[in-house]
Design goal:
This protein is mainly alpha-helical and 193 residues long. Helices cover 78% and strands 0% of the residues. The chain is globular.
């Protein structure tokens, strides 16, 4: 259960951190520092229980609604709706805790997270299913999952999982490099007393 939680949480953070960072700095006009704090606090909260709530709720509803037995298009729609609702509900406390105080900024951030949650729900759900397969937790039965990857050894699948993590980190770094706010520094990240 702990391994599944860690894999699910990592899949969530790896997949959505670059998308939400881009939305925060380019759409909601958050400073790089507030956005990075949101990514750090968001990531920590995913590992401290939000990821468990998200993936457990997703799995529970999928089972109750018999989504697993349905077509991939039904799974895609389900993941989009579930992720949108979860992301929007979670965003307000996250932004307040991250230092956002402007109502417009929080509203745009929440709206953006809901929209991105909808658009990103399918890839997020797919990422969870794939990462579970890559780490040996659960076989991915989606028809779109490449058979060449399904048949790889566990060691090879672990390298693919590591590649996903590295790609996410590069994308996240690129977003903050491209933003207009150049005030992000190590000193601005560390909470000063």
């Amino acid at each position: 259960q702990l391994k599944k939680h860690l894999v699910d949480s990592t899949a969530i953070v790896v997949e959505n951190a670059p998308l939400f960072a881009a939305q925060e700095v380019f759409f909601a006009s958050m400073s790089d520092t507030v956005s990075l704090h949101a990514r750090i606090y968001g990531g920590l909260s995913v590992y401290l229980g939000v990821g468990f709530a998200y993936s457990t709720g997703r799995d529970f509803l999928k089972e109750k609604l018999h989504i697993v037995e349905k077509s991939e298009s039904i799974q895609t729609a389900y993941d989009a709706l579930y992720t949108s609702a979860f992301a929007a509900a979670y965003s307000i406390p996250l932004y307040l805790f991250s230092g956002a105080s402007d109502t417009k900024e929080i509203t745009l951030g929440t709206l953006g997270r809901g929209i991105i949650g909808f658009l990103n729900g399918a890839p997020q759900g797919y990422m969870l299913d794939v990462c579970r397969d890559l780490t040996g937790i659960q076989t991915c039965t989606r028809t779109s999952y490449p058979s060449f990857l399904r048949e790889k050894s566990f060691r090879t699948k672990q390298f693919f999982a590591l590649g996903l993590l590295c790609t996410s980190l590069v994308a996240l770094s690129s977003i903050y490099t491209l933003s207009e706010d150049k005030s992000l520094s190590l000193e601005s990240i560390v909470v000063q007393e």
